[in-house]
Design goal:
Layout lengths: L2 E6 L7 H14 L3 E5 L3 H5 L3 E3 L27 H13 L4 E6 L1 H11 L5 E6 L15 H21 L3 E6 L6 H9 L4 E3 L9 H19 L3 E6 L6 H13 L3 E5 L11 H19 L5 E6 L2 E6 H4 L8 H18 L1
Parallel strand pairs: 1-2, 1-4, 4-5, 5-10, 6-8, 6-9, 7-8
Antiparallel strand pairs: 2-3, 10-11
Helix pairs in contact: 1-9, 5-6
Bound molecules: adenosine-5'-triphosphate.
The site of adenosine-5'-triphosphate (ATP) has 20 residues, from helix 4.
Length: 335
């Protein structure tokens, strides 16, 4: 192995820089040249790249975002785009490509696999934690800590006014962020893919209203509703408006949005990224291809790219049950 390529693709996630750093430092150990492509697959298609040496990854382990930039690249959805990407890999004599990203980015690798003989290694880099074959993705731990910190602040102001707040969290189509954050913040309601169907929105509103009324009649406290994005019909604002207009409930809305993507990665993400980055080079050296590396029960494991994107990893049932039990206990105590 003489030369590898690396890129970050899809939504950026804190810890991507730590992963780039680990890959580059490990590659250097084995005298492998490392080419960094910019702006996701766009850099590959347009041959926008630079050589990465040890000095280019100095002082980046603690930084959010990605020094290679990230982007969506619609061209990859056509065979012409994929072939352009493959031409670049061939022209630049890349032996292996390492992609740090989410399931979409891995589908990009699966498309490249159809036309290229080189090795393809994926590292799970997404705040959504929605990849199979790893307990956690790089960026998830930082994102939930960021959201928890923000919601603790919302709790303070909600408490001061005995207010209801709907807080919408990221997660695309999975509830890992909403459930973990909701429990850690002691949210009175968690509305997520695991426990809610959009067809039942009206039923859910009635349930929430009676719970809020009961809650407020007891001890006049704040009430937080944590909501996963892409779930409630017309979003968080619409739920808030309904509570306000139809039921005269003083309700604020906060859409945390992209704040959840930024910031310095927490220790857990830096360590995961570093371990997986080194493992990626080790996998390249022994000829592995079309795999994602992840960590399961503290062991580094590999899974095929196909298996990684199956979306079978669900929010741990014990979390869902824990949330329900906590609510039941809280209701008992109030009575
Ligand atoms: P995140 O979920 O964190 O945003 P992601 O990697 O899933 O990350 P996407 O926007 O879904 O983000 O995908 C990133 C890029 O991967 C796309 O812009 C596109 O270039 C490529 N890609 C996605 N799906 C495919 C596909 N089916 N075939 C080829 N390339 C794809």
């Amino acid at each position: 192995i003489r030369r590898i390529g690396i890129l970050t693709s899809g939504g950026d996630a804190p810890g991507m820089n730590a992963a780039i750093r680990a890959v580059v430092l490990a590659a250097h150990q084995y005298s492998i040249e490392c080419i960094g492509f910019f702006h996701g697959y766009n850099g590959l298609i347009n041959q926008e790249y630079r050589l990465l040496d040890n000095s280019s990854v100095k002082d980046i382990i603690h930084k959010g975002g990605t020094i290679l930039k990230s982007a969506r690249c619609p061209e990859m959805l056509s065979e012409t785009g994929v072939k352009q990407a493959v031409n670049s890999l061939i022209k630049l004599q890349i032996d292996a490509l390492i992609v740090i990203g989410g399931d979409g980015s891995f589908n990009g690798m699966l498309a490249i696999e159809q036309h290229w003989q080189g090795q393809l290694i994926g590292l799970p880099g997404t705040i959504d934690n929605d990849l199979d074959g790893t307990d956690f993705t790089i960026g998830f731990s930082t994102a939930i800590n960021t959201a928890i910190e923000a919601i603790d602040k919302i709790r303070d102001t909600a408490d001061a006014f005995d207010r209801v707040f709907v807080v919408e969290l990221m997660g695309r189509h999975s509830g890992h962020i909403a459930f973990n954050v909701g429990i850690a913040c002691g949210a009175e309601q968690i509305i997520s893919f695991e426990n809610f169907n959009a067809n039942d929105a009206n039923k859910k509103v009635n349930e929430i209203v009676s719970d809020i009324k009961h809650h407020q009649s007891q001890d006049h406290q704040s009430y937080l509703i944590v909501l996963a994005e892409n779930l409630w019909p017309n979003g968080a604002q619409s739920l808030s408006e309904q509570l306000k207009l139809q039921y005269s409930i003083d309700c604020g809305t906060c859409i945390l949005g992209h704040i959840q993507r930024g910031g310095s990665p927490v220790a857990k993400d830096r360590l995961l990224a570093t371990k997986l980055g080194v493992a990626a080079i080790e996998a390249v050296l022994v000829g592995k291809t079309s795999i994602m590396l992840g960590e399961l029960k503290t062991e580094i494991e590999e899974v095929t790219l196909n298996d990684a994107v199956q979306h079978t990893k669900i929010v741990a049932e014990n979390l869902v049950v824990a949330h329900e039990n906590i609510l039941a206990l809280a209701a008992q105590n109030k009575r």
